[in-house]
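Our collaborator T.R. sent over the components below with a one-line note: 'Predict the complex.' Nothing else. No constraints on interfaces, no templates requested, no preferences about which chain binds where. So this is a plain run: every listed entity goes in together, and whatever single assembly comes back becomes the starting point for the next discussion.
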Amino acid sequence: MLFGMCLLEIYILKINVSVINTHGVQMPKHIVSGLKYLTAVELIRDGLSQKEVAEILEMDRSTVSHYLNGRNLSWNSIEVAEIITKFCPKDFLTLTYALLDNSEKTRIIVKTCSKKEFQAEIEESCIGCGLCADTCLMNAIVLDDLKAHIDSNWCNGCLMCRDVCPTNSIKIFGGK
Amino acid sequence: MELKVDQDLCLGCGNCVVACPVNASISPEVYGGHGPKTEDVIMMVENGVIKLFNESKCTKCGTCPLFCPTDAIYLE
Amino acid sequence: MVANTKEVKDKDICVLRISPEEKRELSFKDEQCIGCGICEKICPVEAIELGDIGAIERTGVDESKISVDEEKCVLCGMCSSACPVDALELKLDEKSIKDMEEYPKLIKTAEISDEECIFCKACETACPREAITIARVLPDRSKLVTGEIEIDKDTCINCGVCEEMCPADAIEMEHHEPTSSDPTVSSDISVNKDKCVYCLICKKACPVDAIKAVCRSCSYGEYDLKPEDSEIKGSSFIDEDACVNCGWCEEICPVDAAKVKKAFEGELDIDLEKCEACGACVDICPCNVLSFPESTKPGEIVEKLKKDETFCIYCGACENVCPVEAIGVKRTDVDFTPTKSKSWKKQLESLKT
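Returned assembly:
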């Protein structure tokens, strides 16, 4: 259902509809390739080697090399992926998770491609129920002494934790 | 949970009417075994059978079923 | 997304939340629940509702004493920490939060020291929850009295007088049906020296003086009795699931072997003007605090209700069940282990009324 909803979103955003039509069910794979390409580019820019990028994204080193040289990849996919990274943080995260169906890779791609930084503040009213930690797709939340702690390195500002918190104890700042 | 009566089973003995602590607090003469003087009570015997007048006042304490000889008044 | 599931088995409830990182499981055992409603009061998301415990306890309606709304429950565990009888338990990855230091717990204990205990079983009888079992081994009776006894079988006429009179059933006769060839009732007689207490009744009662017996304990006093031979050995057991820390065992113990620490302090007020003596509180009280007084002489008018606050744990079940608001339970102190969480501290403190 989540995936269906997001596809509709893509449609509304008037992204190259022909990509969806022509490629049919292979569509998600192409977007994933686009997202991996963007992530690989960012990681190389951060100074990582192709080998390290391949390990992080769990790909062949040769595929990484192909990607970086713009081979085996349609520019439409990259275009769609770029638009996805510019969605609001929650939609970017949930769509990426729905496309990859893999928690660890989702975290890396979203962390690498998110340009904004967020800070979290947990108020004393937190009861340590752990609902936020269970909800966070970035695994950015841990409980310590019955209080949630959010690692701002991993927070992508999706606000899903804030929405599920039964005591309204989570405040997220930033987004610059 | 609701207070219910089965008039077919009721013998009209009035045990429940005088046992009910809420009845007794509304109409104190009930505590001594008399019939209530007001229809504000939860239940009363009318024409020989039990009738609920104000079941919303019932706190479901479970006293009346303990005293009913025929299970004609019950909580379900 | 994470969602709760609920399982109901008989009257027990289990709410589960499983994520890739953690499994949270809240379980409720109806049998242990005393209907105090503290879980309902402490729940920060109003997921717990206390049932009509009066009707449930007294008329046997087939319902759980509480209901848990799994849509609202966030599995925080506050109900588990505050439940005075451990009817609710939250487990994180199969580990109870009662075994985790960061979670506060009510400080309540009940212990019987086997060193002090004389195994009289007074506590076992008095415990309103049948939570105590006392196992005891009594001393060997034959070691507490010593003597000598002998029956002269040539003189004995097998009349059975000694057997009938022996208070310890120590005389054993070989009974048989009398026949025309052997018109007697017994063919042999012996004394079981493990049972004999050397009281000498048989000797005095024997019509033919066939019994010779002497009691050595009497002539020497306690001289040749070893103290260890008269020791009563045993062990005590308190079923923690059933115990409500009411203090009956401590109060009734003649040697102060039982020690009880209650989690709450408070006051129990009964408005005898309002009370209609329906007995709902008497039936629900887990500690036998409340009772109907009995008149001691004809025509005596007694109070409608009697309380013995010594045993009150200030749980509030009686207040919940009273149909005419005649009972007030005040909690002036709630004793729990320290926690770093301010919200937990605040919620537990809120149980004070």
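Summary for T.R.: Chain B has a mean pLDDT of 93.
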